[in-house]
Every structure is written in C-alpha cells, then in structure tokens.
Amino acid sequence: MFHRKPLEQRIAERQAALPPLKEGKHFEHGPAKFVFIAAALGATVIHVILLVVVMLLG
Predict the structure, then answer these.
(1) Rounded to a whole number, what is the distance in angstroms from the first to the last CA of the chain?
(2) What's CA 24's distance to the chain center, in Å?
C-alpha cells in the first residue's frame, strides 16, 4: 500500500540481523529483566506477609 514490506517480513529481517544471544543470557532488554525480578520479589514478599498474618490470626 505504501511501498513497505509486510510487518512480519520487517520483524524477521530485524531479528535475523541481531547477533546470537550469549549462553546463559535470557533477557535481551535490561528494563524487562528489572520488571520481571521486581514482580517476582514483590509476589514473594506479599505471600510471606499474608502467611504470617494468617498464622497469627489462626
């Protein structure tokens, strides 16, 4: 329509141009790693707090 390649083809070309991931590296994006770790830690802390509250009330 506007003389552009389809979205799927542009994404495939962009990914093909990326260097291979280093072994043991699972996150290509630093902020995504930070958000994932923060969410996991937040969920763990909330569960521990709720466990303590239930034990005190039970």
Answers:
(1) 66
(2) 15
